[in-house]
Amino acid sequence: MRTWAWEASRSVPEDGRTTVRYGHDGRDGGLHSIARVGLTTVPSGSQEVVYDPENPKRAAFVSDMPENVKGRRNLLFLLLATAAISFCLGCFDVFA
């Protein structure tokens, strides 16, 4: 499920890499948290998260998820097929 998480705490250790802990409401009515560790820039405000309604502690930030994986896979397949056809046409010298 998708929901919004708000900043609950922030810490900056001596190495300067920020850790931000976000809280989100689960479908079970409980409050759960998710952290971003080792940040060099600090995001402000709330972040969109996706979590498993059966296990709300299992969550991920939407911004960390890959976009359109199926489209990328199809593009890669198309490029490989084109390269294979070009290679075969070159090997057999079809246009000569």
Output the keywords.
25% helix; alpha+beta; 5-stranded antiparallel β-sheet; 5 strands; 96 residues
Give me a quick take on this structure.
The protein is α+β, with helices and mostly antiparallel strands and 96 residues long. Helix content is 25%, strand content 42%.
What does this structure look like?
The structure is a single chain. With 96 residues, the chain is an alpha+beta fold. The protein contains one helix and five strands, in the order βββββα. It has one helix spanning 69-92, and strands at residues 2-11, 18-25, 31-39, 47-52, 55-61. It has a five-stranded antiparallel β-sheet with strand order 3-2-1-4-5, with no helix packed on it. The longest helix has 24 residues, at 69-92. The mean pLDDT is 83.
The helicity comes to 25-40%
DSSP, total strands: 5
- H/E series, N to C? EEEEEH
In this structure, how is the largest beta sheet organized?
5 strands, antiparallel
- Average pLDDT, to the nearest integer? 83
**Principal-axis shape:** elongated
